[in-house]
Write a structure and sequence with these properties.
By secondary structure, the protein is of the alpha/beta class. Among the domains are: about 100 residues, Transcription Regulator spoIIAA (2-Layer Sandwich), CATH 3.30.750; about 60 residues. The chain is built from 13 helices and 13 strands. The strands form three sheets. It has a seven-stranded mixed sheet with strand order 2-3-4-5-8-9-13, with helices on both faces. A three-stranded antiparallel sheet has the order 1-11-10. A hairpin with a 6-residue loop joins strand 10 and strand 11. It is globular.
């Protein structure tokens, strides 16, 4: 009996001993790294900018990363390495998206066994945190206009000039949940049922129409308030959608010419251009003679883009990885507002045609305020106004995101980890031929830092504002 007890005790001791930790194996992660490297070579629209303008060579970057990864001892080490690659590249549309762990069923504000009230607009990603307050509202002597409009606005003095200030926090309705809620009420959309694609289209179309009317209304209010110069504050604006092109045209009577579009050769853009050509021919089959001729002409342009997209470029020294066709707005880069009114096909060749905007609601000296946290569609807004000499850009060089992901983009799922590598598939080329991803360099540079306090930011901008006003006035003279 005693011997049996001793044996049981010994067994318990063995079971209690911790299992030997399995050594970390970097090999699968190195395979992921090599897959990511190849994706950059095959899909990354801004590779030439990265290597030639930034001076950062892709292969040496990944070679060093592979050496460091071989010595990694944990997933935390690996994550830090991938984060450093992303930061080193410094492109606002390059991202390693790590798989999310499933949240606990009891996480969040609702108690187990209870249902939180449904917020349809929140489920559709309408969130006021997308639109931050901005900088210009802190100007000395700033007098706000009456509230009730998505765009904060007011007037301030700079010397003898009355400056109208309007804040655009993000270039899409999702930053303004009240627009979604208004659409839900207008269409009597039940919040206790799923909102399908048709339902979401109704909401977003209504929201864009209200957003456009609100921006035009604020602009007219500032004119009535005596504004002599208009300052559009897009500091801290993370971007948005193609609505930025419509918004830019609201602030200028000039017929703005959009940036030229570049795209990565390959299957993704071959399909987009082929689908566009087919759509335009479908419209042509039912169109009147004048429209038919235009539509067939646009379809021929799309056909030419298909041929470019499906022609591989194996050797960069003999051809360009990036083909060009059309503009950031589509096959049409400039036209007057309303030019495609009543033509359902208009939006397929000129994207701003989907929004009910009007050219030149403001037709005076214009300043666009930017900083290092101005990104993507906000940069597009600033670039098209600067390139057409319609506005003076004031502030700090913008973040540098440029064109992003079209129709879902070309994501790459890394085989070992499930990380999704997001790479931009398009380029916006500015009037001087440069890639917008370099960031917008202001006409009047202010020594701002992204982490400056509001008081310092405001003082630095206010000190530079008189010079920007004089430049904007000179630019506006015929």
């Amino acid at each position: 009996m005693k011997l049996r007890l001793i044996a049981v005790a010994a067994a318990a001791t063995v079971l209690a001993a911790p299992l030997a930790a399995q050594p970390f194996d970097p090999a699968p992660w190195i395979a992921d790294l090599q897959q990511a490297r190849q994706a950059f070579h095959d899909k990354y629209a801004n590779l030439e900018w990265l290597e030639n303008e930034r001076g950062l060579k892709l292969d040496p970057l990944f070679d060093r990363a592979a050496q460091q990864l071989a010595g990694a001892s944990s997933e935390a080490d690996v994550r830090g390495l991938f984060d450093r690659i992303e930061q080193r590249i410094g492109d606002g549309h390059v991202q390693f998206v790590w798989p999310r762990r499933a949240p606990s069923q009891t996480a969040g504000g609702a108690k187990p066994g209870t249902l939180a009230p449904r917020d349809l607009c929140a489920e559709l990603n309408y969130d006021s945190r997308q639109a931050s307050p901005g900088t210009a509202q802190a100007f000395p002597g700033y007098r706000p206009l009456a509230d009730g409009n998505p765009f904060p606005a007011g007037t301030a003095r700079s010397g003898e000039a009355i400056v109208g200030v309007i804040r655009i926090g993000v270039f899409q309705p999702q930053g303004y949940p009240e627009l979604c809620r208004e659409a839900v009420r207008t269409f009597a959309i039940p919040e206790d049922r799923p909102c399908d694609d048709q339902c979401q289209d109704k909401i977003i179309t209504r929201a864009y129409a209200r957003l456009t009317a609100a921006l035009e209304g604020r602009t007219r209010q500032l004119k009535s308030a005596g504004a002599q110069v208009l300052l559009v504050d897009i500091t801290g604006n993370g971007g948005g959608s193609e609505w930025a092109e419509a918004a830019a045209r609201i602030f200028s009577a000039k017929e703005l010419v959009s940036e030229r579009r570049g795209y990565v050769r390959g299957e993704h853009w071959t399909k987009q251009w082929r689908d566009l050509a087919a759509t335009l021919r479908e419209f042509a089959a039912q169109a009147r003679r004048a429209d038919k001729a235009s539509l067939l002409g646009y379809a021929a342009e799309a056909d030419a883009a298909v041929r470019e997209a499906e022609t591989p470029c194996a050797e960069p020294s003999t051809c360009n990885r990036i083909a060009t066709a059309g503009y950031s707005t589509g096959l049409v880069g400039h036209t007057k507002s309303g030019a495609f009114a009543g033509k359902d096909w208009g939006v397929h060749v000129f994207s701003p045609a989907q929004f009910p905007y009007h050219d030149g609601v403001w037709n005076g000296p214009l300043i666009v305020l930017v900083d290092q946290e101005t990104w993507s569609a906000a940069e597009e807004f600033a670039a098209v106004l600067q390139d057409n000499k319609a506005a003076i850009v004031l502030g700090a060089r913008t973040g540098g995101a440029g064109c992003g992901h079209t129709n879902g983009g070309t994501p790459t799922k890394l085989k070992n980890s499930g990380i999704i590598l997001e790479l931009p598939d398009c380029v916006r080329f500015r009037a001087d031929g440069s890639n917008e991803v370099r960031g917008i360099i202001p006409d009047e540079v202010v020594g701002l830092r992204a982490n400056d306090g509001l008081a310092l930011r405001t003082r630095l901008i206010a000190d530079s504002l008189p010079a920007a006003i004089e430049k904007a006035k000179a630019l506006h003279q015929p």
